[in-house]
Design goal:
Strand content: 15-25%
Largest sheet: 5 strands, mixed
CATH superfamily of the largest domain: DNA methylase specificity domains
Mean pLDDT: 88
CATH class of the largest domain: Alpha Beta
Helix content: 25-40%
CATH architecture of the largest domain: Alpha-Beta Complex
Low-confidence stretches: 216-228
Radius of gyration: 30 Å
Number of helices: 12
Length: about 450
């Protein structure tokens, strides 16, 4: 563990298996096929709070093959798959006594005469315990360790009274950390709500309607004289006032396809090396995450560009992701560099004389959830070119567009700074949590005087 030379002299250095009892496997042939069991699997653990939050109920005749290990209250369930995910919890619910856990867990049952269950639990959460196991994982799809790898980990063993004091102090400090973390996460949620309300207000004209720079323009409901392009667009029958009267006076309702050119990307053949590693930026859907695109993970060659349907789009183009069951579908980004893109994304070429690319970006942020619901498909929900073109957008005057963007960028910059502060604080909280565990499990968290007082 790297700290054996600094531990109290009365602590013992053991292997975890030396302080644990053997866990029995279930004999399925002896079970009534129609009787029910409670099944605990890895998916039932919340690895943010390290607690069992759900279970499954099966008849023995239908139970999965991993239904193998009998567990009792105070057992520690340690997932041997992707150990870095920390799917670890103590069996605390009396209803789980004598029930069955997945063979994906190493079930750790401490010898009660030697070690406390909670002391084992906090050990397994520490970097000192986890890091060696992370290095031992094998397998590409489901990297895992064996039970014997877990039980072979070094384990520093203080006397039971000292374990009690250490566990108590850890829980006291963790409680304070959790309270602070909860407050930060609450602020984070409030900030998200504020961002959305700010965007909503922007597209209702509430951020700019009182701006004196718009004096004389608010009554100007016809702005065809701005540019030839706008004159052409506003003659279209598709450009109209909002049917519900929800747009500010002087705005019009349009659609992405009516105002902009929309392009679907392409991927050069992967099996032709000459198409890849060139000087042309190429963007995948996974890089679209409500952000500015200043660089891409991959690049293609001129040959790759010429032998595919790829097109290079200029700075200011707005990209929207069309595919993805997770968070990807519906997310947008703005090119700050020229780039091609893959077929799972749509490029919206923005003419800044007509519409601000940042305003379009902010509108797609506001309508993210709504646009995700538009996607449909047999195998995977998706947007497509026509659905992107049909997304309705408000059309303010050019001057008001610029003012809206200025107001949003000013206020959202403040939000970004607060978000950054919260993120840093949350990261520091996790670092502090590991520092507490390290000190506790090296005998440095509580004084000898406090330990003696518990004896």
């Amino acid at each position: 563990m790297g700290a054996e030379n600094n531990i109290p002299t009365h602590w013992q250095l053991k292997k975890l298996g030396e302080v644990c009892e053997k866990v029995a496997s279930v004999k399925r042939r002896e079970k009534d096929p129609q009787s029910e069991l409670i099944y605990l699997d890895i998916g039932g653990i919340d690895n943010q709070i390290n607690k069992i939050v759900s279970h499954k109920i099966y008849k023995w005749s239908e139970a999965p093959s991993r239904t193998q290990q009998i567990v009792f209250v105070d057992d520690v369930l340690f997932s041997t798959v992707r150990t870095y995910m920390k799917n670890i919890a103590v069996v605390a619910n009396e209803n789980y006594n004598g029930q069955i856990a997945s063979s994906g867990f190493c079930v750790i049952r401490g010898n009660k005469e030697l070690v406390l269950s909670k002391f084992i639990f906090y050990n397994t959460l520490s970097h000192q315990f986890l890091h060696p196991l992370n290095e031992l994982q094998t397998g590409s799809s489901y990297p895992a360790v064996r039970d014997k790898d877990v039980f072979n980990q070094n384990f520093l063993l203080p006397p039971i009274p000292e374990q009690l004091t250490i566990v108590s102090k850890i829980e006291e400090l963790f409680s304070e950390l959790d309270n602070g973390k909860q407050q930060l996460e609450t602020t984070q949620k409030q900030l998200k709500v504020y961002r959305q309300s700010l965007l909503k207000a922007a597209f209702e004209g509430k951020l700019t309607r009182q701006d004196h720079r718009l004096d004389g323009l608010q009554e100007d409901t016809d702005f065809n004289n701005r540019t030839d392009k706008i004159r052409e667009i506003t003659k279209s029958e598709k450009i109209r006032d909002s049917d519900k009267g929800e747009l500010p006076k002087g705005w019009r309702l349009s659609s992405i396809g009516e105002i902009f050119e929309v392009f679907i990307g392409s991927t050069p053949k992967r099996n032709i090396p000459e198409y890849w590693g060139g000087n042309i930026n190429w963007l995948s859907s996974g890089e679209i995450a409500f952000c500015d695109i200043t660089r891409t993970r991959e690049r293609i060659t001129e040959e790759g560009l010429e032998n595919s349907a790829c097109k290079v789009h200029l700075k200011g183009t707005v990209i929207i992701a069309m595919i993805g069951e997770g968070k990807t579908r519906g997310q947008a980004a703005v090119l700050k560099i020229s780039s091609a893109h893959n077929q799972n994304t749509a490029a919206i070429r923005v003419d800044e004389k007509v519409y601000s690319s940042m305003l379009l970006y902010y509108y797609l942020v506001l309508k993210y959830e709504e646009n995700r619901r538009v996607g449909s498909g047999n195998n995977q929900k998706a947007l497509n070119k026509e659905r992107v073109k049909n997304i309705q957008i408000p059309l303010p005057t050019i001057q008001e567009q610029q003012l809206i963007v200025q107001e949003l960028e000013s206020k959202l910059t403040v939000c970004d700074k607060i978000e950054e502060t919260i993120t840093t604080a949350l990261q520091q909280a996790e670092t502090l949590r590991q520092s507490i565990l390290k000190k506790a499990l090296e005998g440095k968290l509580v004084t000898e005087r406090k330990v003696n007082a518990t004896r």
